[in-house]
């Protein structure tokens, strides 16, 4: 699936990737199917290809739009609930993903935080309380633990998907990757000791803590102690989000990542305002 996080597309994450303007119109505009699953999907639920095919005909090469009803929880809605919108929304199982690939679907659109199941992403590690809720829900409704639903062999699919994307002329990223290439890459030897300040994507405030642990700045579960000690303040040992982060700047999708790069450049050039 193409990444449509913003109009910059995969370039936001991968320099040789395509932006939206570089995609053919017959990829972006095509016949498609819309399926309403809002009456069968709730918090943490898993939807399947069977649920889709029972309600709508999906042809090879179609665009597929999935209605879950979770747009009602978007931050711009009267019933907004960002945790439900981003962390608790329903998502597909692995069989659905393989079916979508076999069907050669052009792209998939959903009305919630992501086309993934949130607990089949790093969110599972970042949001431990919600992960426990989802595990209990999965056992009660499906008779499976969260680990059984989304085990590690189903969780780490990046290498396989890049291999598939290399053969797909419509993919944003058309280059295979390998664990070996990543390990031998120029960034492989860069570690926390080489970083003097950082901008981290705090779409939720808790993510500053989670990401700072994930990249190795602090031990797992200890980042909050660094904050208490002032280590991440502007005059601290490792300043983080000197711009004020998304908490201060807001979160217009796409622009936030660019603004973080601008902040880093201004800091490196010494152009930041006095006191920053």
From TrEMBL:
<protein>
    <recommendedName>
        <fullName>Thiolase C-terminal domain-containing protein</fullName>
    </recommendedName>
</protein>
<dbReference type="GO" id="GO:0004061">
    <property type="term" value="F:arylformamidase activity"/>
</dbReference>
<dbReference type="InterPro" id="IPR037175">
    <property type="entry name" value="KFase_sf"/>
</dbReference>
<dbReference type="Pfam" id="PF04199">
    <property type="entry name" value="Cyclase"/>
</dbReference>
<dbReference type="GO" id="GO:0019441">
    <property type="term" value="P:L-tryptophan catabolic process to kynurenine"/>
</dbReference>
<dbReference type="InterPro" id="IPR007325">
    <property type="entry name" value="KFase/CYL"/>
</dbReference>
<dbReference type="InterPro" id="IPR016039">
    <property type="entry name" value="Thiolase-like"/>
</dbReference>
<dbReference type="GO" id="GO:0016746">
    <property type="term" value="F:acyltransferase activity"/>
</dbReference>
<dbReference type="InterPro" id="IPR055140">
    <property type="entry name" value="Thiolase_C_2"/>
</dbReference>
<dbReference type="Pfam" id="PF22691">
    <property type="entry name" value="Thiolase_C_1"/>
</dbReference>
<feature type="domain" description="Thiolase C-terminal">
    <location>
        <begin position="187"/>
        <end position="274"/>
    </location>
</feature>
């Amino acid at each position: 699936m193409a990444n449509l996080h913003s109009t910059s597309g995969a370039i936001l994450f991968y320099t040789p990737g395509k932006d939206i303007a570089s995609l053919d119109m017959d990829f972006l505009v095509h016949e498609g199917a819309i399926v309403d699953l809002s009456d069968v999907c709730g918090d943490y639920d898993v939807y399947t290809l069977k649920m889709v095919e029972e309600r709508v005909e999906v042809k090879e090469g179609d665009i597929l739009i999935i209605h879950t009803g979770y747009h009602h929880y978007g931050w711009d809605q009267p019933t907004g609930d960002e945790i439900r919108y981003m962390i608790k929304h329903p998502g597909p199982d692995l069989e659905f993903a393989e079916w979508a690939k076999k069907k050669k679907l052009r792209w998939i659109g959903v009305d919630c935080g992501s086309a993934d199941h949130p607990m089949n992403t790093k969110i599972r590690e970042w949001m431990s309380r919600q992960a426990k809720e989802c595990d209990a829900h999965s056992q009660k409704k499906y008779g499976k633990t969260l680990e059984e639903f989304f085990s590690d062999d189903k969780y780490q699919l990046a290498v396989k998907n890049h291999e598939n994307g290399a053969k797909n002329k419509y993919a944003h990223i058309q280059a295979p990757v390998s664990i070996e290439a990543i390990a031998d890459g120029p960034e492989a030897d860069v570690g926390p000791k080489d970083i003097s300040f950082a901008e981290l994507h705090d779409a939720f405030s808790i993510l500053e803590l989670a990401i700072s642990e994930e990249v190795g700045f602090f031990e797992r579960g200890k980042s909050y102690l660094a904050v208490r000690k002032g280590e991440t303040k502007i005059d601290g040992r490792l300043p983080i989000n000197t711009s004020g982060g998304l908490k201060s700047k807001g979160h217009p999708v796409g622009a936030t990542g660019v603004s973080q790069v601008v902040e880093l450049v201004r800091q490196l050039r010494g152009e930041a305002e006095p006191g920053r």
